UniProtKB/TrEMBL annotation, chains A, B:
CDD domains, per database record: 8prop_hemeD1_NirF
This protein's name: Cytochrome D1 domain-containing protein
Organism: Marinobacter azerbaijanicus
Database matches in PANTHER family: DIHYDRO-HEME D1 DEHYDROGENASE, PROTEIN NIRF
PROSITE patterns, A to Z: PROKAR_LIPOPROTEIN
Domain of life according to the entry: Bacteria
Gene3D superfamilies hit by this protein: C-terminal (heme d1) domain of cytochrome cd1-nitrite reductase (2.140.10.20)
Length: 405, 405
């Protein structure tokens, strides 16, 4: 190849300069859009009113960028791919959005139902499952492509003999590539086995109207809260043949029945030192249960109806958030003495808390103050604040490595 | 600024071409060397004989690259930065090497002592501490720059009144930005507080000649193995004023005293379901202790002297590796029935095992077979093998998020 240039030197020089500078700029921009960086200290903050999420860095207390266009995020949650690069955001409107934390952009998005309530990612990271209210049931997607892999309609026959699809709640992943979820109308707990292509379902009778559930951090006990009766349904996944048993028989007894959306979150239970710290229903108390026999061993008075009761990663502190109208404070309980050691005021309408993976800090969202406050867990003093539009849920990428999150 | 070019057009064109192509090539190369990818599913495999490490991807069962020049890795271990991008490799020759998993290269390297035995990273990720045999003591470095931040000589006065530096062992991080370690000659356990600049040390009398230690996953109990006596030293970090207590009083009793380098690793203890699964010393047994009162509740016969006894992340299985000459197999124990459910043959001279963070697979290194075998923990069948030169330790980036690892 022979190249001939007959342009005047100055023009060439200008072109050269423009090209090199321009080229570098474009390159730099592309690079900053998909930056080379570790993903272990990243996370997402849901901005519930604007359908957006913030990508944040927990080491630098920084916002890396905002991702828009995620639909109705009024009750949104997130799980992560096993490389901790992609977040799967479950929106209220049935939207399942895969976002890339490195490029801070939407990779893929499907509207998979009319109304959904959360999801989970399988132990091996291959499947993302979504729990639906409308039309009910569970859908399972390929985590790479978001192609539909399995559909579990969750049909049941009502007392009047009518067949319908049940709302599903409390969907979690469990060891052995299982998903476990509860059927609100059917009063059942189902195990979906995704360890091979058969997508086999095993059904268990549970209590009446399960509204939410949790799985213990080791993936052994699945516990569903019941709207229709007092007490909780427990399934021991190490011994499923024993079926569902009832625990904490008085649990759910309040002064009056709460509407289902005011019931405390069960993901918010704290498991520390062989004890479960549990939000009371309709009482200003945190309940303490012995996990060996599930007996109630203590009631800790707090300043409002608890919503989230979360243990720090070292189990040394229990952080409690509250329901409206007492939701402008967070209380910190010493898990050993069970005393309240501090009452913090992170802002107006505190919605969620997330500990950094090794627990040196905790991020707290205050929706109506449009900010997230970062506290040092040792000093209990604020160390940073992050501006966010009506922030709700906070989800760090370390969840990629935890069972049941 | 005015630019003047008086070079002939052809020369300029050639320069332009060279610059642009060259520039782009360099840029591309740099970019492919530092790939844009998540770091949640990466890890390092120590190649002990060649002073190198392999960077691996656990999702694809792939080697991404080899990093050379790390010195004597005959007893090496790794901790990770909180962004899960950088590994800190502790070599036997006192070398502390910071490697970048994204560019697969050495970022920085210091020879900080004559002989070291491992290290830890602080809860907040700011400090890397190294445990030294020669000249003894602990050194603390800035994790960004590897600049020396604090030096703890670990001096003690011997029975003959001579002052010396003690070898330090069992160095771990603990909540509150603490480091905890044991002094072999001094028979003490020290807490180093790195929560402020004072680097304050608190000393505790322990048993005779601690040779290794562990901290429980919640960072509460520090347990040191003793070479000089039977039993173990326990420090409850929630109640340090109670001092060190002795647990498992018969522990260490074998048919004969083992040399210290043949004593089982204490990091290899499994904590599952309120029970500690512990390698017996000088016996072909795994001991089971109740963590409430540290009483011995069972002895599980196995095929050799156990070295590593590790619980799967769901606590459902206990995997056991063995000392020479019975070190070509791994045994898998059901943690509930305490039966051996499978005896696997991953190759010759099995040295280490590492579970993927959510436990669907486990990687096992066989030094003399020059390979690492990946097993599915559900089927207990091999799913992949990785070629490696005399592989020993395997360390996944999810350790960035765990206390005491």
């Amino acid at each position: 190849m022979k190249l001939e240039f007959n342009l005047p030197g100055k023009l060439i020089a200008a072109l050269l300069l423009a090209f090199v500078l321009g080229g570098c700029q474009v390159f730099t921009e592309t690079q900053s859009r998909s930056e080379v960086m570790g993903t272990g200290d990243l996370g997402l903050i849901i901005e519930r009113a604007s359908g957006s999420v913030l990508v944040i860095n927990t080491s630098r207390h920084e916002v890396l960028g905002r991702i828009d266009g995620l639909g109705d995020l009024s009750h949104a949650s997130v799980v992560y791919s096993r490389d901790a690069r992609y977040g799967y955001v479950f929106g209220r409107d049935g939207g399942l959005t895969k976002v890339d934390l490195l490029s801070q952009s939407v990779v893929d998005r499907v509207i998979q139902s009319g109304n959904s309530i959360g999801g989970a990612i399988s132990q091996d990271g291959r499947y993302v499952a979504v729990s639906n209210y409308e039309p009910g049931g569970v859908k399972v997607f390929d985590s790479q492509t978001l192609e539909l892999v399995a559909e579990i309609p969750a049909t049941y026959t009502s007392g009047e003999g009518q067949v319908g699809q049940s709302k599903t709640v409390g969907l979690v992943d469990a060891p052995g590539n299982l998903f476990v979820f509860s059927l609100f109308e059917a009063g059942e707990i189902w195990i979906l086995d995704m360890s091979d292509d058969s997508a086999e379902v095993t059904r268990f009778e549970a209590g009446e109207s399960p509204y939410d559930a949790l799985i213990t951090p080791d993936g052994r006990y699945y516990i569903a809260g019941l709207f229709g009766e007092d007490g909780l349904s427990l399934l021991d996944l190490w011994n499923p043949a024993q079926g569902v048993t009832e625990i904490l028989p008085g649990y759910g007894k309040g002064e009056q029945k709460l509407p289902v959306y005011k019931m405390p979150h069960l993901e918010g239970w704290a498991i520390a030192d062989g004890r479960a710290f549990v939000p009371a229903v309709g009482h200003h108390q945190v309940l303490v249960a012995d996990m060996n026999d599930w007996s109630l061993v203590d009631r800790i008075p707090v300043q409002g109806q608890p919503v989230f009761v979360m243990a720090s990663p070292d189990n040394r502190q229990i952080w409690v958030s509250f329901a409206h109208p007492n939701n402008d404070v967070v209380q910190v309980i010493d898990s050993q003495t069970r005393d309240i050691v501090r009452t913090l005021e992170p802002g107006s309408a505190v919605l969620h808390m997330e500990f950094t993976p090794r627990g040196e800090e905790v991020w707290v969202s205050a929706r109506d103050s449009n900010r997230v406050t970062v506290y040092n867990t040792r000093t209990l003093e604020p160390v940073a604040t992050i501006n966010a539009e009506k922030p709700s849920g906070i989800f760090f990428t370390s969840r990629a490595h935890a069972l049941g999150l």
